[in-house]
Amino acid sequence: MDVDRRLTHVELLHAPGERALATRVFELLGCRVSDSGGHWFTAFIDTNLRDYANNSFYASEAPAEQLAIEAAMGDLVEGWVEMVRAAPQKSPHFGLRVGTIEEHRAIIENIRDASTNDDDLRGRIEVLGVFPHDAPDAIATNMDQAFIWTNVFASGPLRLGQVIELQWHLNREPA
User: For residue 5, how many C-alpha atoms fall within 13 Å in the half-sphere facing its CB?
Assistant: First the structure.
């Protein structure tokens, strides 16, 4: 079946000097990174495919103009981050679907471990909430969801961070 419409990529930015750290976060999310040292690097969502044109993330260094605007945000940032922590499902985010419940759980545990034990990632990445499909307060009954926050890379201001919804679907085939 030919598919004419699809998400090709998400472009994300990282702070100057944090390219390697951004690579590590993509790897924690289960992506395979390819970095030829150019302007950006690519993180493949499906580790079995190497399609630069589809189903991938690109990441490059945030420009000085963005960093100047972010510096002017001042103390307003902390209020935003607290709102995101309280209700991550209501924040701007993108979803990343994994193939098995075991992979979903392993990524969550790896991120929790890194957020506690990795000096470079402590305070820079966290699991905001896990919502199993069968919990009384489930957001969705067809999938397990985990919301992850990082400020290592973002599709907007780095100081606000990026929320990623990690999903495992009960039914792998789309309806």
Answer: 0
What is the distance between the alpha carbons of residues 66 and 5, in angstroms, rounded to a whole number? 31
| Both structure tokens of 66 | 């963005």
112 phi/psi in degrees, rounded to 5? -60, -45
Q: How many residues does the chain have?
A: 175
Token duo for residue 154: 């973002």
Q: What is the pLDDT of residues 59-78, one digit of tens each?
A: 999 999 999 999 999 888 88
- The side-by-side arrangement of strands in the sheet containing 40-44 is 32-34, 40-44, 56-61, 9-14, 153-154
pLDDT classification of 99: cutoffs 50, 70, 90: very high
Domains of the chain and CATH, by start = 9-169 (3.10.180.10)
pTM for the structure as a whole: 0.92
Structure tokens at 133: 């499909």
103 to 5, 97, 98: CA distances (angstroms): 27, 10, 7
Alpha-carbon gap, residue 61 to 15, rounded angstroms: 6
The three-state secondary structure class of 120 is coil
